[in-house]
Amino acid sequence: MFKKFLITLIASLSLVTVGVCAQPQQIAEAQSVHQKVPTSYRGTWHHGKIKLVLHARSIKAPIIHLKGHQMGVKRYRHSVSVFQQRHGKAIAEPFNMQRKHHKGHVALKVFYISRYLYFTK
């Protein structure tokens, strides 16, 4: 009887252990597009006479002017994309930015509609 009880106990414990280990991994949630621009990208940037002003939740330049809920931000490992959004989806061409160095100065490499521009502080 003790032998039968011991076998039943070991079998049930092994099933519990397998059940705990076999639980599915938590699925990561989708990244929100309502984020802030990282602090290293913020400030006033210049490209000749063109001025680009970046705040946490707004961007102002001659070709783009977005603020608040209409501005979507996607943060990647080495870059940031800013775009016009509605209901969480991009409805305009993204404004891709990346921190770089250009001619010995800290620069912001901006890609917008198949063109690169370097803005310096």
Task: Give a verbal description of the structure.
This protein is 17% helix and 42% strand. The chain has one helix and ten strands. It has one helix spanning 2-21; strands at residues 43-47, 50-55, 58-60, 65-67, 71-75, 80-86, 89-90, 95-102, 105-111, 116-120. Strands 5, 6, 7, 8, 9 and 10 form a six-stranded antiparallel sheet that branches. Strand 5 (71-75) and strand 6 form a beta hairpin. It is elongated, with a radius of gyration of 26 Å. The model has no long low-confidence stretch (mean pLDDT 82).
Characteristics of this structure?
121 residues, alpha+beta, 42% strand
Number of helices: 1
Mean pLDDT score, rounded?
82
What's the count of strands? 10
Strand content is: 35-45%
Shape: elongated
Radius of gyration: 26 Å
Give the structural class.
Answer: alpha+beta
Q: Which blocks of ≥5 consecutive residues have pLDDT under 50?
A: none
Helix and strand sequence:
HEEEEEEEEEE
Describe the protein's topology.
Elements: H1 2-21, E1 43-47, E2 50-55, E3 58-60, E4 65-67, E5 71-75, E6 80-86, E7 89-90, E8 95-102, E9 105-111, E10 116-120
Condensed summary:
By secondary structure, this protein is α+β, with helices and mostly antiparallel strands.
